Amino acid sequence: MRRIPIIIMVLLLCLAGCGQQSMPSSETPQISDGPSWAAQCTLSGIEAQDAKNTSFLQSMASRCDVLDACVLACIRNECAKTVGGGCFHACGSFGTDDPERAIREFQEKTSLFCQLPAA
């Protein structure tokens, strides 16, 4: 039963990536492009449900591209819990257009996704 949310998150991450224009690897934003990203590339402040979830989150933290940094910031601040697709939806929707803004809004909990009422 616990595998279902992880499978859904992975599928949503894949779908979010399909809507984005791909950039040549030399132009892909990296951690060094934004100092705020490095702080997001850790599991500090995130409670994983189980070992599989921990492993999945660790792989995101170690890879830490734009979307990973955004999703980790969102999860850490418990934003988008009531949104279908959660943080993967929130970050896939707008997080890659202006990742520094998205991460800042998740940290400050000013993102619309952080302010939605609990279900």
Radius of gyration: 13 Å
Query: Which strand-content bin applies to the residues?
Result: under 5%
Query: Termini distance?
Result: 21 Å
Structure classification: mainly alpha
Main sheet properties: none
Could you give a short description of this structure?
55% of the residues lie in helices and 0% in strands.
Describe the model.
There is one protein chain. With 119 residues, the chain is mainly α. The protein has one domain. Helix content is 55%, strand content 0%.
List keywords for this structure.
0% strand, single chain, 6 helices, 119 residues, mainly alpha
Please write out the topology.
Blueprint: H1 3-18, H2 35-40, H3 51-63, H4 66-76, H5 86-95, H6 99-108
